[in-house]
Design brief:
alpha+beta, 166 residues, two-stranded antiparallel sheet, single chain, 25% helix
């Protein structure tokens, strides 16, 4: 009778101690200096070790395109997404690292300037997603984590996830 159901997105947690990085035999998965965990699809051999190592189930094997609306072709969003990946490789949320990198090159700040912020944050109709610099104690995300008791999913795994739930 005291059971609650929570629905959480199973996106990549961009862990500080990312198990996927440690097991990748080719170095295709790496931790960027800004904290994002990225996949170089030109180096990924599709061995799926990273999928097995990820305790959050946040990685998926891309064996073929699976349109949201079968028989109708890809949506414009899917066309953009599938251009980033190669069949036979692993894919995951990368927090739109291309947007972040392009924005930074233009002098923009991720989490503040829309053009340098992940699309999911910009398009969330409920304003339930936030993005920013966790190392800056004055950033909006750091303040939200402090004031609203943000928590990491399964901290006992020891991966130090970079995604917090409010």
């Amino acid at each position: 009778p005291a059971v609650q159901r929570s629905i959480l997105q199973v996106l990549c947690k961009h862990c500080e101690e990312a198990a996927c990085v440690k097991v990748c035999p080719t170095g295709a998965t790496e931790k960027r200096p800004d904290g994002l965990v990225a996949i170089d699809h030109s180096q990924c051999i599709g061995c799926r070790y990273c999928m097995m190592a990820c305790p959050y189930g946040s990685r998926h094997f891309y064996d073929k395109e699976r349109p949201l609306f079968p028989g109708k072709g890809l949506t414009p969003y899917e066309e953009i997404g599938y251009r980033q990946y190669q069949v036979g490789t692993v894919m995951k949320c990368n927090f739109c690292q291309e947007r972040i990198d392009e924005g930074i090159d233009q002098g923009l700040k991720p989490g503040i300037d829309r053009e340098a912020t992940p699309a999911c944050v910009n398009s969330c109709i409920g304003k339930a997603r936030f993005f920013g610099d966790l190392e800056d104690p004055e950033s909006e995300v750091s303040q939200l984590i402090r004031t609203r008791q943000g928590r990491q999913l399964h901290p006992e795994f020891g991966t130090e996830p970079g995604v917090y739930y409010l």
